[in-house]
Design a protein that fits this description.
Elements: E1 2-8, E2 21-27, E3 35-44, H1 48-52, E4 73-80, E5 90-93, E6 100-104, E7 109-110, H2 129-141, E8 149-152, H3 158-169, E9 174-179, H4 182-190, E10 196-199, H5 205-212, E11 217-222, H6 226-235, E12 236-244, H7 265-268, E13 272-275, H8 285-297, E14 305-309, H9 314-320, E15 330-334
Parallel strand pairs: 8-9, 8-11, 9-10, 11-12, 12-13, 14-15
Antiparallel strand pairs: 1-2, 3-4, 3-6, 3-15, 4-5, 5-7
Helix pairs in contact: 2-3, 2-8, 5-6
The chain binds NADPH dihydro-nicotinamide-adenine-dinucleotide phosphate (NDP).
Length: 335
């Protein structure tokens, strides 16, 4: 069997571009003892991957030049020499950005079949890393309490769309969000059930936040950093808290973002700002799956996917995460 894979051809300077990627087709060996051969069905493209393209130390090592990129993937076992992982098993792995691969069975995780009506790609979104990121932020990092007013930036994306809904399910009395394009703002309000949403393309964020949350907010789920973080610090009430999840407005190009001009407010208002990385919380995965799975099964959690078709579309799907395109919810590539 052959597999087409996407490699990192050059390290991007600032914004990544199509020529930073190259496709190559390689043979996939038959599995040896204890190994499985997997054909991927869906690949994940995520903003954090941009940071791994820089040759700088981080919480995950940089991608190697000239080698296939890695990332979340779900697929089916098509050949097996392992008694633990049979042919036909649905598995997740970090062997994304390629059509197929052969590895030791211990390097894949066998998944239960998804609930009725839910595609297996959900394991890359609402039931996977982004969904868990939202859940960790809302339950562990800056817990949402009954009656809280909550602001979620990046609210049309994989993490933000779930974070707002989880805040609501936990009793928040007001949930507002921000997004870019008009269709994203509409989706945040009408599909994901936020009380309101503003466009960060429509002037400074602070007047919008003052209008949507006139009595201030108790919790901020930050996906973007920059100007929206600065504005959120102004409207956070005393003793408010923020889960600092991402800073995508800085582009993840290795340069530090601009200083947050309102940081001095943290002291007088006794705010708690806490950054986090979801992979530090894997011990909570079953609690996450129980809560989010129940909300999904009960129809109390809506999720959207934007699906790119074919391995060759992966670089474009990834680049669009940073370009404010029309993608709503989790972006996946159907192999
Ligand atoms: P998505 O790509 O699904 O969503 C990101 C959103 O960011 C998009 O909806 C886009 O929406 C918005 N965005 C892009 N560029 C800008 C910009 N310049 N200014 C403001 N908004 C922008 O990503 P995820 O939902 O998967 O990730 C959201 C954030 O969470 C990212 O920062 C990511 O790095 C971070 N993250 C952190 C994790 C952790 O463990 N801490 C784990 C997973 C993700 P729009 O076009 O509407 O602006």
């Amino acid at each position: 069997m052959d597999s087409t894979e996407i490699r990192l051809a050059s390290r991007p300077e600032r914004r990544a571009k199509p020529t930073d990627f190259a496709a190559a087709t390689v043979p996939v060996p038959a599995p040896g003892p204890g190994q499985v051969q997997v054909r991927n069905s869906f690949l994940s493209v995520d903003p954090y991957m941009r940071g791994r393209m820089n040759d700088v130390p981080s919480y995950v090592p940089p991608f190697a030049l000239g080698e296939a990129l890695t990332g979340g993937a779900v697929g089916r076992v098509v050949a097996s020499e392992s008694s633990d992982v049979p042919v036909g098993a649905l598995v997740s792995s970090m062997f994304g950005w390629r059509e197929a691969f052969t590895v030791d069975a211990a390097a894949v995780q066998v998944l239960p079949e998804p609930p009725q009506g839910v595609a297996e790609s959900a394991y890359l979104g609402v039931l996977g890393m982004p969904g868990m990121t939202a859940w960790v932020g809302v339950t562990q990092i800056a817990p949402v309490h009954e009656g809280d007013a909550v602001f979620v930036s990046g609210a049309s994306g994989a993490v933000g769309s779930v974070a707002g809904q989880l805040a609501r399910a936990r009793g928040a009395s007001l949930v507002v969000g921000s997004a870019g394009a008009p269709e994203k703002v509409t989706a945040v309000r009408d599909e994901f059930g936020f009380d309101d949403c503003f466009s960060h393309l429509d002037g400074e964020p602070l007047p919008h936040l003052r209008r949507l949350a006139p009595n201030g907010i108790d919790m901020y789920f930050d996906n973007v950093g920059g100007a929206q973080l600065a504005a959120a610090l102004v409207v956070l009430r005393p003793f408010g808290r923020a889960a600092l999840c991402g800073a995508i407005s800085t582009g993840y190009d290795g340069t530090p973002g601009a200083p947050v001009a309102t940081m001095g407010l943290v002291v007088g208002k006794r705010l708690t700002l806490r950054g986090f990385i979801v992979s530090d919380h894997t011990d909570l995965q079953s609690a996450f799956l129980a809560e989010v799975g129940a909300l999904l099964a009960g129809g109390r959690l809506v999720f959207r996917e934007t699906v790119a078709k074919g391995i060759a579309s992966a670089p474009e799907a990834f680049l669009a995460l940073f370009e404010g395109g029309g993608q709503i919810g989790k972006v996946v590539v159907a192999v």
